[in-house]
Amino acid sequence: MKKKIANLPTNYFGLIKASLQLYRASFDRTIILSFLFTLFIFIPNILAIITGTPLFIFTSFTVQQLWFLMVQLIGTALYVAILWRMHCVLRGIHELMTDDLKMGVEKVLYIIASIVVATLILFGVFLLVIGIHHWLQYNQFNLMSHPILLSVLFIWLGIIVLYICSLFIFFAPLIVTENYGVFTSLKRSASLVWNHWGRVITTQITPWVVYVLIMTLFRYLFKLDILMYGIYAIGFTFVHILVVTLLLPWLAALSLMQLKDLELRNK
């Protein structure tokens, strides 16, 4: 039996409420996956605290790249498992955690391939900007001598990048819940967000704003070191793991609920 979370489509506050309801309904399973995700991400910090040595400063570039690749693969698989668990809660499907992890492993390469494609699109935008800059220089127009125009161009570039990022923000839940491929998920995400990018950005940024506010509060109340590398504070690392563990499932829930909201708006 499908679980009724909220009446969609709805406004910003309705989406926040619906995401928190889904978060609570799937908390017992997703919190374990979220903790594993966060613990894995913070392994370098934990080891640095134990050994008293900032590991990545003294390791080779190859080791750092291999670790980054492992983080991408395992972290993505765990996040996919969280998305799938929440989707199962919405659909009233009862599966084991091993099924969630299996789904994560099956979809991880599709997710990473989509990230690569989206990154290439952004890279194309930067190449276009560089091309325009060289063209202006070729025609003896120096942007550096026009600071106001340069500032306007940088602002517009930032808006364009933010817009493109928002277009592809739902490719992961589409791959997980709708079984889309790499290009179809990016295309579908862009078509859903196209006329709602402002709504999408303001909604999806909410967990990140909460994260920054919480960490800032802890920093000033308890005088915790907020550096991830350098001086390793046990207190900060513990708080960081706790906060990320609690907020990651909310990020996934908000993504799923707004995706459903946009699908209904675009019918």
Q: Can you walk me through this structure?
A:
- Helix 1 (12-25) packs across helix 11 (234-265) and helix 5 packs antiparallel against helix 7 (171-177).
- This protein has eleven helices and no strands.
- 28% of the residues are buried.
- The chain is mainly alpha-helical and 267 residues long.
- The protein has helices at residues 12-25, 27-41, 43-51, 61-91, 97-138, 147-167, 171-177, 182-193, 197-204, 206-222, 234-265.
- It has one domain (12-265).
How are the secondary structure elements laid out?
Blueprint: H1 12-25, H2 27-41, H3 43-51, H4 61-91, H5 97-138, H6 147-167, H7 171-177, H8 182-193, H9 197-204, H10 206-222, H11 234-265
Helix pairs in contact: 1-11, 2-4, 2-11, 4-5, 4-7, 4-11, 5-6, 5-7, 5-8, 7-8, 10-11
Report the order of strands and helices. HHHHHHHHHHH
> What would you report as the Rg, rounded to the nearest angstrom?
21 Å
Terminal CA distance reads: 24 Å
The number of helical elements comes to 11
Relative helix content: over 70%
Range of strand content: under 5%
- Main sheet? none
Uncertain stretches: 227-232
Spatial shape: globular
Structural class: mainly alpha
Integer average pLDDT:
82
Query: In total, how many beta strands?
Result: 0
How many domain modules? 1
